[in-house]
Amino acid sequence: MSAGIKDLGTRGDSIVGYNCVVLVKQVPDTKRVTGQAMNDDGTVNRAALPAIFNPEDLNALELALDIKDQFGGTVTVMTMGLPTATDVLRAGLFRGADQAILVTDRRCAASDTLATSYILSCGVKKLNPDIVLCGRQAIDGDTAQVGPQIAEKLDMPQITYVEDLVSLNGETIVVKRNLGNGWQEVKGQLPVLLTVLDTANEPRVPRARRLMKCKAAKSRLEVEKEAKEDASIDVDAVCKDLEANGLLIRQWDLDFLEADMQWCGREGSPTKVHRIQSVVLAAKESKEVEPTQDGVEAMIHELIVDHTIG
Ligand SMILES: Cc1cc2nc3c(=O)[nH]c(=O)nc-3n(C[C@H](O)[C@H](O)[C@H](O)COP(=O)(O)OP(=O)(O)OC[C@H]3O[C@@H](n4cnc5c(N)ncnc54)[C@H](O)[C@@H]3O)c2cc1C
């Protein structure tokens, strides 16, 4: 096992639990949009919005913690982001995760969903988990592509829109999917990737004691930053101490992940943004529709006629 990876234990004939990796993303709180939320060029002014735990990732984490409570095993939270994304990992730890991993590297910048999922798949591969859990969707990018793309890259079965764990027995998992207009029970074989809905559960309230303890969790980068301001800090000694207490946030770069650079960052991102436009509807462009069957039918007819839908 490579340095820096906690031994998650192995499962043979006697099941000793399931090793879960939860992918968590730090996102701007799009519910608290103020006047300064957008830059003049139409991009999001991230500094003006508080950063939060992507809501559906909390549901994915809760499902992983529930699996650990029922069957034993481990829960690892992993994020790809800037060094400041450790906040979301600390939150993962105080909510009950056993270890936290920050994938951070300047060469990740400008990654679209394809590059993001490639980089995260390299991180997941290092951990060789039984179950990978993602939120269905991030509230900033909103594509819902990252989970399914990771499964494809790892050649792992995926079950999306998960609302409930029905059973987990040996290598067989049965979950309930919510399809919007009905439910489906799906049986799959481990290892598997699940994308989890916000209706799946109610994330638990963290225990005050654990919250206080895990607030002290840090990455090496954070310790190094503190050492720049206080020469008495011995970075190696502090990191060793944090590790001994399960409070060291591991930091992986693209070299550690053995990532192929052609699939990372700008080079690995086929999506090109040609124009960003802030759309403000003028009153004459909006139309009131009668909330009746006839009103809705007339609107649909109009949309089909002008080829908006069809
Ligand atoms: C052309 C282009 C350029 C971009 N450039 C940048 C850039 O320079 N800098 C930048 O920050 N973003 C950039 N982005 C945005 C970035 O690609 C997305 O944030 C990222 O791919 C995730 O997509 P999403 O938000 O739609 O996630 P979704 O697919 O909606 O997320 C689904 C789930 O996947 C998991 N997940 C998603 N992202 C992460 C993550 N980072 N870490 C851990 N788990 C995750 C979570 O479980 C989440 O609930 C760019 C996007 C495009 C299209």
Account of the 3D structure:
The chain has two domains: 18-263, HUPs (Rossmann fold), CATH 3.40.50; 280-310, no CATH class. 29% of the residues lie in helices and 22% in strands. It is built from eight helices and twelve strands. The strands form two sheets. The chain has a ten-stranded mixed β-sheet. It has a two-stranded antiparallel ribbon with strand order 2-3. Helix 2 runs antiparallel to helix 5 and helix 3 (113-127) packs across helix 4 (146-154). The chain is globular and about 70 Å long. Residues 1-13 have low confidence and may be disordered.
Ligand roster: flavin-adenine dinucleotide
Main sheet specs: 10 strands, mixed
- Topology order in helix (H) and strand (E) letters: EEEHEHEHEHEEEEHEHHEH
Radius of gyration: 22 Å
Number of helices: 8
The strand order across the widest sheet is 9-8-7-10-6-1-4-5-12-11
Task: Based on the model shown, name its key terms.
310 residues, alpha/beta, Rossmann fold, 2 domains, ten-stranded mixed β-sheet, two-stranded antiparallel sheet, 8 helices, 29% helix, 22% strand, globular, disordered N terminus, binds flavin-adenine dinucleotide
Fold blueprint:
Layout: E1 18-23, E2 26-28, E3 51-53, H1 55-71, E4 73-80, H2 86-94, E5 99-103, H3 113-127, E6 131-135, H4 146-154, E7 158-169, E8 172-178, E9 183-189, E10 192-196, H5 208-214, E11 218-219, H6 220-229, H7 235-244, E12 248-252, H8 293-305
Parallel strand pairs: 1-4, 1-6, 4-5, 5-12, 6-10, 7-10, 11-12
Antiparallel strand pairs: 2-3, 7-8, 8-9
Helix pairs in contact: 2-5, 3-4
